[in-house]
Amino acid sequence: MKRIAALALPLAALFASASLASEKPLFVYVSPNPIGVNDFLKLGKIGTERVAAALGGVAKTYESSDPATQRQNLEAAAKAGAKVVIAIGFEFNDMLPEVASAYPNVTFLQVDSCPFDKLKPNIHCSVFREYEAAFLTGAEAALTTRTGKVGAIGALDIPFLHRFTDGFIEGARHVRPDVQIAPTLWIGGANPFSDPARGQERGAAMTADGADRILAAASGSNGGVFKAMQEAPGAAAFGVDVNQCPQAPGAVMDNVEKKTDVSVELAVKGIVAGSQPPIAALGLKEGGMSITALDPDPKGSKCLIAGHPDVIAKIKALRDQIVDGSITLADPMTAK
Q1: The dihedral of CA 116, 30, 38, 202: what is its sign?
Q2: Is 215 helix (H, G, I), strand (E, B) or coil?
Q3: 232: which of 72, 107, 156, 265 lies 20 to 30 Å off by Cα?
Q4: Residue 272 maps to a domain
Q5: How far is residue 182 from each of residues 163, 202, 207, 209, 215, measured CA to CA in Å?
Q6: Domain count, the chain
Q7: 212 and 330 share a domain?
Q8: Does a structural domain hold residue 76?
Q9: Is residue 5 situated within a structural domain?
């Protein structure tokens, strides 16, 4: 009997260990599209894995390919008992409130978009103040232009994208009131976020109009804008979301970067702590937005701005003024 009791203790410890392992919180990241080489979506996965490790949990990624799999993945994550389901992108705006209503005991986090008019008690949103970083790239454009003319190209003329285009223009005028601004152009068409041919057309039209520093806020259409810059001597574009300079060496000055990983980390930690507001907006102060020039090693970025250390110094000063409130910027999305 004593021997059996002695054996029972290790078995009990084993079962207790297994029980504790099964109680680790699960955090599931649902991407709107296959991650592949999409650096923006990669950051969401990285942020989920990092925060799961910090909280002693387990991270899983469910990749989607279309609206049907997006919804299926949200539901599968909820059924799996996820503590937080993280979804990135506007693609989830319509379906997320419906899924959240069906699983009221599961918390959902939407990043980079939000179903504002259909928000549920178990949905949190983490969005960005894109216009702050766009302001800095506009300042860079005005400080580096050779023709004295800058402009912006966006995918669609919608309020959200004015956070990029209007912020860029405001930054250019802030540091150089006499800078010329080309009329903003929009990609449009059936696939504005993924039409490099139309992007190249718009980029060529703007450089032909004399602009040599152009913000490209058109996602997959940006490649066409970059190609137009490569064909216009001295011209340079500004990318968005991630460092796009390696995609077109010699054609991209800098980028408006969204630190999606930082956004996921901060929001999930806040949700677990019970301190996260329903909607949180991250900008330069929180580290949710930045530009590539502010990275520790801009020389390794392959961005043209690395060759302008004097401009980077001025941009850092502007960044600090926005962070401390010396410069206040209105949100173009709500100002219209």
Answers
A1: negative
A2: strand
A3: 156
A4: no
A5: 17, 12, 9, 8, 11
A6: 2
A7: yes
A8: yes
A9: no
Q: What is the pLDDT along the chain (336 residues), one digit of tens a residue?
A: 344 333 344 444 443 434 344 589 999 999 999 999 888 999 999 999 999 999 999 999 999 999 999 999 999 999 999 999 999 999 999 999 999 999 999 999 999 999 999 999 999 999 999 999 999 999 999 999 999 999 999 999 999 999 999 999 999 999 999 999 999 999 999 999 999 999 999 999 999 999 999 999 998 899 999 999 999 999 999 999 999 999 999 999 999 999 999 999 999 999 999 999 999 999 999 999 999 999 998 899 999 999 999 999 999 999 999 999 999 999 998 865
Chain centre to alpha carbon of residue 123: 19
DSSP strand pairing (180-181 vs 149-154): parallel
The residue ranges of DSSP E strands in the chain, in sequence order, are: 26-31, 58-63, 84-88, 107-111, 123-128, 149-154, 180-181, 185-186, 213-217, 236-241, 252-258, 279-282, 289-291
Within a domain: residue 285?
A: no
Q: Which domain holds residue 196?
A: 131-257+290-335
Q: Does residue 150 share a domain with residue 84?
A: no
Q: φ and ψ at 11, to 5 degrees? A: -65, -45
Pull the structure tokens for residue 188.
Answer: 């449009």
In total, the chain counts a number of residues equal to 336
Q: What is the CATH number of the domain that holds 62?
A: 3.40.50.2300
Give pLDDT, residue 22.
54
Q: Answer yes or no: do 41 and 113 share one domain.
A: yes
**3-class SS of residue 82:** coil
> 139 and 118 in one domain?
no
Q: What is the rounded distance in angstroms from the CA atom of residue 198 to the CA atom of residue 224?
A: 7
71 and 218 assigned to the same domain: no
Last residue of a domain, one of 84, 105, 128: 128
- CA distances to 109, 256, 258, 330 from 288, rounded to whole Å, are 16, 11, 6, 17
- Rounded to whole angstroms, how far apart are CA atoms 222 and 198? 10
Q: Please give the pLDDT value at position 211.
A: 98
Q: Which of 128, 148, 166 is the last residue of a domain?
A: 128
Q: Can you give the pLDDT at residue 12?
A: 42
Same domain, 224 and 319: yes
